[in-house]
Design brief:
- The chain has two domains: 6-188, Rossmann fold (3-Layer(aba) Sandwich), CATH 3.40.50.150; 199-260, rRNA adenine dimethylase, C-terminal domain (Helicase, Ruva Protein, domain 3, Orthogonal Bundle), CATH 1.10.8.100.
- The protein contains ten helices and nine strands.
- It has helices at residues 16-23, 42-48, 62-72, 107-116, 134-141, 151-159, 199-209, 217-224, 228-233, 247-260; strands spanning 12-13, 32-36, 54-58, 77-79, 96-101, 125-133, 160-168, 173-174, 181-188.
- Helix 4 links the parallel strand 5 and strand 6 (125-133).
- The longest helix has 14 residues, at 247-260.
- The protein is elongated and about 65 Å long.
């Protein structure tokens, strides 16, 4: 009997209806698949039934890896490592479809890593099919002028279209988490606002949302030294609050900062 490790944020998905639903959201047959955090391999088994072309799984827990090796033998390529340390582009030349019941404690860190490492063309993945705590999913999906809108939504929506598939109750997992989860699917956009360094979006949004209930005048001055030309160019009302600025305004701010800092 494999026990979940709280330190690794493990909650194993055991609901066959949900497992089937996850593998039906996109075509798997003859595709290259990456599964992150397979746990006891329940989703892995359902993916294998769909006949992928090649199948990689990344699992950090050594005990789980030994169990997965016994269970699947040569059907999958098992990588015993931390997903945050992996270069996904080195796994295959083919575009991957990524499935992940992501560890709750590092789910946003994993997503942000993938977004920041995206180039301006030739994405390494075709789709991301990922599970998050419902609260985190709501922050990813949040729209401007809502309480959940912030850095995560601005970064996630920059190069990705995001669709919510369903919510998942704690009873679908073992052990049961204390909160609901949500399944999201991410698809790369063909057109997006061009910014050379994604870390500039991170920086701008971090400074603006450090004081999300205060007016944007202070963070704007901090980044741009009160540059009136940039304020006019972007038609910024400095009396607004961070959640009142739409996505494109943040991307434009990041671009202006990028150009100023050379």
């Amino acid at each position: 009997m494999i026990k979940a490790k709280k330190s690794l944020g493990q909650n194993f998905l055991i609901d066959n209806k949900i497992l089937k639903k996850i593998t039906n959201v996109t075509v798997i047959k003859d595709k290259s698949i990456l599964e992150v955090g397979p746990g006891t391999g329940n989703l892995t088994s359902f993916i294998l039934k769909k006949n992928p072309k090649e199948f990689f799984i990344v699992e950090k827990d050594q005990k789980l890896v030994l169990d997965l090796q016994r269970k699947f033998q040569n059907q999958v390529e098992i990588i015993n490592d931390d997903i945050l340390k992996i270069n996904e582009k080195e796994l295959t030349q083919n575009k991957l479809i990524v499935f992940g019941n992501l560890p709750y404690n590092i789910s946003t860190e994993i997503l942000c890593k993938w977004i920041i490492k995206l180039g301006n063309k030739d994405y390494w993945f075709e789709k991301l099919v990922l599970m998050f705590q419902k609260e985190v999913a709501e922050r990813i999906l949040a729209n401007v002028n809502t309480s959940n809108y912030g850095r995560l939504a601005i970064l996630a929506k920059w190069k990705l279209d995001i669709e919510k598939i369903c919510d998942i109750r704690p009873s679908s997992f073992s052990p049961k988490p204390k909160v609901d989860s949500s399944l999201l699917i991410f698809t790369p956009k063909s057109k997006f606002f061009r910014i050379n360094n994604p870390k500039n979006i991170e920086l701008v949004t971090r400074i603006f949302f450090n004081h999300r209930r205060k007016m944007i005048k202070r963070p704007f001055n901090q980044l741009f030294n009160g540059n009136i030309e940039i304020q006019k160019k972007l038609k910024l009302n400095l009396n607004l609050r961070p959640q009142n600025l739409d996505l494109i305004t943040y991307y434009k701010l990041a671009k202006e900062y990028e150009e100023l800092s050379g």
